Amino acid sequence: MYEILTIKSKNEFELIDITDKVREFVKRNVKNGIVIVFTKHTTTALIINENEHGLLQDIKETLFKLIPKRGNYKHDYIDNNAHSHLKSIILNTCLVIPIINNEMVLGTWQRIFLVELDGPRERKIIVKGIEEK
Ligand code: ZN
C-alpha cells in the first residue's frame, strides 16, 4: 500500500514538518513493519530532526554556508538552481522508519521534514508501507 502526499511549499527554502501526515498513513495501513518516505524531486530532501525554531534557522544557515546560492556552477547556465541540487545530494532522498503497533518508532524529538530547496512549488512525496510477514 502507498500514498502520494502533495505538499505545496511557500518559500524558496523551507522545512516542512510532514510527521503527522506520515503518522496518519501508518495508523491506517501498517501494523508492524516499515514505512518508506521518498521524495520524487532533485531539489528537495527528507530529514529527521527536531522541530525547534532556532535549530531550523541553524539548519538553513549551515546549508547555505556549505553550499552558497551563487558559485561557479555549470548547471546554472541551463537552470539557475545548481545550489538546490547540491544541497539535496548531501541530504536524503529517502527515509525508512520502523513501525510497531501502528506507530512509527521515532524518538521524542524526532520529526520528519520535507526540505524544500527550490520553492515555492508543488511537491509529491511517496509514502509506502511494508507489513512484515
Ligand atoms: Zn536544475
What is the name of the CATH topology?
A: Jelly Rolls
- In CATH, what is the class? Mainly Beta
Assess the beta-strand content as a share of residues.
35-45%
Number of helices: 3
Mean pLDDT: 98
Residue stretches low in confidence (pLDDT < 50, at least 5 long) are none
Structural class: alpha+beta
The biggest beta sheet is recorded as:
5 strands, antiparallel
> What is the helix fraction of residues, given as a range?
10-25%
Q: What is the CATH-assigned architecture?
A: Sandwich
Overall number of strands: 8
* Ligand set: zinc ion
User: What topology, given as strand order, has the largest sheet?
Assistant: 1-8-3-5-6
Ends apart, CA distance between termini: 14 Å
How many domains would you count in the coordinates?
A: 1
Protein described:
There is one protein chain. With 133 residues, the protein is α+β, with helices and mostly antiparallel strands. The chain has three helices and eight strands, in the order E-E-H-E-E-H-H-E-E-E-E. The chain has helices at residues 19-29, 53-66, 82-89, and strands spanning 2-8, 14-17, 33-39, 44-49, 94-100, 103-104, 111-116, 122-131. It has a five-stranded antiparallel sheet with strand order 1-8-3-5-6, covered by helices on one side. The chain has a three-stranded antiparallel sheet with strand order 2-7-4. A hairpin with a 2-residue loop joins strand 5 and strand 6 (103-104). The model has no long low-confidence stretch (mean pLDDT 98). Bound molecules: zinc ion. Residues 75, 79, 81, 85 line the site of zinc ion.
